[in-house]
Design a protein that fits this description.
7 strands; binds adenosine-5'-triphosphate; P-loop_NTPase; binds magnesium ion
């Protein structure tokens, strides 16, 4: 079964989008299909994939602005990245946080209701940096959470808050939700980063992915040229390619990944 994974952390700038697109790039590089769902009003996954929104495109906002089972299928578009599809987002999605509809947090789940996702090896939700309704909506729709964090004191504390949110969603309404992995992102070789990494590994054990993602400028260069990191040749792109490919293997996404 295709897993729907939420890449989350309420803290901004920790690497949620970079990890979403890094995994999408790794899947694409292996000839595998992935659906990215941009659930951030900043739309960084949308622009990172080289997509320019047009009036006729449906967005995540459209899925959450009404209650239509299966409507996610109508919002999927192909992107310039081979084998990477997208449900795009823009700033209109910010309006959802002030929407008082009773079923609001279920609408994303309802939008995916009944859909056959077997063409994809994974569905990756790029989440906004908040613990608001958008994140709750994703956690209601997802099977698993990949918590992305930088190895810093604030980010480590942020994981505790995220865990509490996940526990609340597990109690009701999504008992099937699993915290699958903590991913250390934007890792530098400073003493502070090494200390926090040890702290996280001591606290969370195997929950922390063995693979961490180094901080390398090739990520920004690839992102600003809308290029999959696995097709980017500048700087130390190779180290990032290896990291995202290794992380993908650890997450065992999709039928081929699960068999690996
Ligand atoms: N491994 C990396 N090496 C270098 N820069 C990185 C890396 N990962 C992310 N960045 C840069 O850090 C910044 C924040 O990364 P990103 O947008 O992925 O974080 P985010 O958690 O999605 O942010 P937000 O909370 O705003 O959505 C971006 O400028 C990005 O290019
Ligand atoms: Mg982001």
């Amino acid at each position: 079964m295709t897993r729907k994974l939420a890449l989350c952390n309420q803290k901004g700038g920790v690497g949620k989008t970079a990890t979403t697109l890094g995994l999408a790039s790794a899947l694409s590089h292996q000839g595998r299909n992935v659906l990215v769902v941009d659930v951030d009003p900043q739309g960084n996954s949308t622009t990172g994939l080289g997509v320019e929104l047009t009036e006729t495109m449906m967005t995540t906002f459209d899925l959450m602005n009404r209650t239509v089972p299966g409507s996610a299928a109508d919002a999927v578009i192909a992107t310039p990245w081979d084998k990477v599809d997208l449900i795009p987002s823009n700033e209109a999605l910010a309006n959802i946080e002030s929407d008082g509809a009773n079923d609001l947090i279920f609408r994303l789940d309802i939008a995916f209701e009944g859909l056959d996702l077997s063409a994809y090896d994974a569905v990756l939700f790029d989440c906004p940096p908040s613990l608001g309704k958008l994140l709750f909506a994703v956690l209601c729709a997802a099977d698993g959470v990949i918590a992305v964090t930088e190895p810093t004191i604030d980010s480590v504390r942020g994981i505790e808050n995220l865990q509490e949110t996940i526990r609340n969603v597990q109690r009701r309404p999504n008992p099937h939700l699993v915290l699958e992995k903590l991913v250390l992102s934007r890792k530098r070789t400073t003493g502070e980063h090494q200390f926090r990494e040890r702290e996280l590994r001591d606290t969370y054990g195997d929950l922390v992915a063995k693979t961490s993602i180094p901080e390398l400028t090739a990520r920004q260069d690839a992102h600003s040229s809308h290029t999959p990191i696995h097709s980017f040749t500048g700087g130390k792109a190779l180290a990032l390619q290896v990291a995202y490919t290794d992380l993908l293997a650890e997450l065992a996404l999709g039928p081929k990944g699960a068999a690996a």
